[in-house]
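Entry for the shared binder. Reason: the reviewer on the internal report wants the predicted structure included alongside the sequence.
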Amino acid sequence: MSWTFRVPFQNIKNFVVLRPPAVIFCFCIASFGIVTLCLSLYIKHTPSPLKNPDEKGWNDVAVKLNRLNFCLLPPGVSPAINTTGMEAASVPFEMILPVHEIWKNFTVISGSIAATDIGLRDYPGTNLSFSLSLMQSQNKICLNLYHPHFVSMPHGAPTCNSLQFNPFPRSIGAFVLPREDKKLTTGSITPKCSDNAAFDVKLLENPAWTVLLGKDDRARSSHHLMVASVFLLTSFFIMLCFAAVRGGSLSKTLKMSNSGRTPTEDKEPLAP
């Protein structure tokens, strides 16, 4: 009985010694299987709300805007915006204190922005017109985005009226300065912008606007991860069984071939 149990363990030991790449592959499969199993159980049983990674929300737009740098146009220069035939989305945001000093001189800033700059990666090459309007306080603005009908905007946020608190707006145009990574990939030349004309917008995220996974989505995601973990762990146990049964076959074959070889067979034949 002890010999019967000793052979599979010896085969596994030989498998580990003779096949290191296969051992690493088995270890990776087992690790991925355990991780997906734990993630599936976490998604299914955790009481915490989970963000839906497939749905863009206004908080995602705020995060993208916070990473951008803007530059004011000279006074009297109109921004390149187009609102004719466009649909509008207006969302109120609170700004992170301290608010930039640019808002002491102007109440409306407008311009054009690429859809990809605010996280709408499904619409490359599409530019959206935007305006930032101060609301009832110096730390709250109304973001207006004018977009074609085929551009899908996030939902789940209240709307705002940009003209409600700006009956006599002090407006100016602005443009988006290219990010450093874009300059490196596209080789674009950064437009000159003086220090007193450069500014950024820091918006606060609203937890109530986060797009969460619904009950059905959580169950579906947990099921898919469970299926993946079962497949990976099953593959690992099949390879483990193979190692237990045939892991030492290679060493036995090498020993038999070496023992049956004569010294003359190991020598190379002399050239005639």
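Summary line for the report: DSSP finds seven helices and seven strands in the chain.
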